[in-house]
Amino acid sequence: MAPEPRARPGGSAQPAIRRLPTSRLILRPFGYLAVGMIWTVLWLVILALAAALPVALSDRRPVGLADSPLSAAEGIVNLTENPLQLVAVVVLLGPVLAAIFGWVVAMLPLTSWPLAALAFVYVARSLHPSYAGEPLSGTSTTDDAIGPPTVSQTALSLLPIRRSRLTDALTKAYAMGWKPSFAMILSCFWLGLGYLVAVVAFTWPVTNVVGIVAFSVVGLGLAGYTVHRLVALSRTVPDLPAPRRASSGRRRPRS
Question: CB-based contacts of 201: which residues, under 8 Å, 6+ apart?
Fold first, then answer.
């Protein structure tokens, strides 16, 4: 039964403030904290794999798996003896590897860290009394999110019920990761190319100062250009569908 309105001193009725169950209020921060930690771990795993790949492909012991530097590998030596084959391999294989690396290094982290950040925002909100009477996040569905084929629409969770500048920025990044456009994927290609340059420089290995500076400038320049393009594209990203609000269980009075 709904609580009766309380009368103000002036005679007008004031609706009673609704609060969520006490057990939910107590457990809510721990639930969001656990979710945030899980997404943080996934994000760190992605970054660790990206950082470990150049080391694993090198001959640096004990981590490196190669028996010799890339410059002394049999296939590379054969290619350097035939410049036409070397150019063909770079032209055909380079863009494919750059596209894959760009997706892994840039777009894949966008599927995890925004969710972690949103969960930690809800941890802070769950400790604030002004949020005690409302849910903090909700779920919406969409047809065009990435992932395996599904019979029904894909659910996007952890969407804020009450928006702010911070949650708007995080949901933009969330949308970029789970609903990427072709322009975003193309922009990430340049970051993948910079990552490929860094991998080659590390596994070759490039040891002279001029070479290290040149590879660093090219790699960082491509990474900076990618970040610039993604920030510009984020302004054009449409908002994710609004989350469904939980029903309060009250019936509206008939007019």
Answer: 211, 212, 215, 219
Q: Quick one: tokens of 206?
A: 């490039």
Percent helix, strand, coil in the chain, to 5, is 60, 5, 35
d(CA 79, CA 165): 53
Instruction: Look at 1 and 234; give whichever has higher pLDDT.
Output: 234
CB contact at 8 A, 111 and 184: no
How many C-beta atoms lie closer than 10 Å to residue 163's C-beta? 12
The pLDDT tens digits for 162-180 are 999 999 999 999 989 888 8
Is the confidence at residue 147, as pLDDT, over 60? no
* Spatial CA neighbour of 117 closest among 49, 182, 36, 181: 36
Task: Tokens for 220, please give them.
Answer: 């960082």
The H-or-E segment that residue 252 falls in is none
pLDDT at 146: 62
Evaluate whether 102 touches 198 at the Cβ level (below 8 Å). Answer: no
- Distance, in Å, from the CA atom of 255 to the CA atom of 252, rounded to the nearest integer, reads 9
Cα–Cα distance for residue pair 166/130, rounded to 1 Å:
18
The torsion defined by the Cα of 60, 63, 65 and 66, in degrees rounded to 10, comes to 0
